[in-house]
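Thread: quick sanity check before group meeting

JM: Hey all, I'm pulling together slides for Thursday and realized we never actually wrote out the predicted structure for the chain we discussed last week. Dropping the sequence here so it's in one place. If anyone has concerns about the input, flag it before I start.
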Amino acid sequence: MIPEDESLGAVVADGNVDLLDKAIWTYGALQTISRENKLNQQASEYYVRQHDTQRRQVWARGQYLRWAKAEGARWVMQYGEGIWNVVYTALVVIVLSAVLYPLSAVGGLRRSSSGAALTYATGGPLDPSTVTGIRNLVAILAESLYFSVVTFTTLGYGDWVPLGYAKGLAMAESLIGTFIASLLIYVLARRVMW
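JM (edit): ok, ran it. Output follows.
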């Protein structure tokens, strides 16, 4: 018999047990047994399965905001179990920002020492069929990637300054970088505690 545990949502009001509730309780029990027997890899797998089932359950109940939060936790950190998920998320944010910074519509970047702007429009011919065009594109993306990494890690050397909407993008990337660094520490701490 499944215990009536409000935290797991095992029993609904009329006394019937939903199949998803049974699965959530079962994965929780298997996780506990695995942890007690020092089977950390299996405990981690059951933990992820339990949270996947809870995510499906909130979708089925029409709680779409909770589902979106759970879906984000699944992709960004695999519910606290995926170190590499956090690293890949950080890389996606860094590369995406690096591609966006030189857009003229965003504003671009300006070198603080010389005042030269860095955008795709001011970087010279970008024709991918010529060697010069490829070199110019690589040079723009390399400088933009450098700025993106410095911004993401909140180092802020000050050799590049964002212009226009790129200021907002830099602020957002810096905040996201701080948040993702915190998530990485959380995931690593969870792994150590087991």
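AS: nice. Residues 1-81 form one domain. The mean pLDDT is 87.
JM: adding both to the slides.
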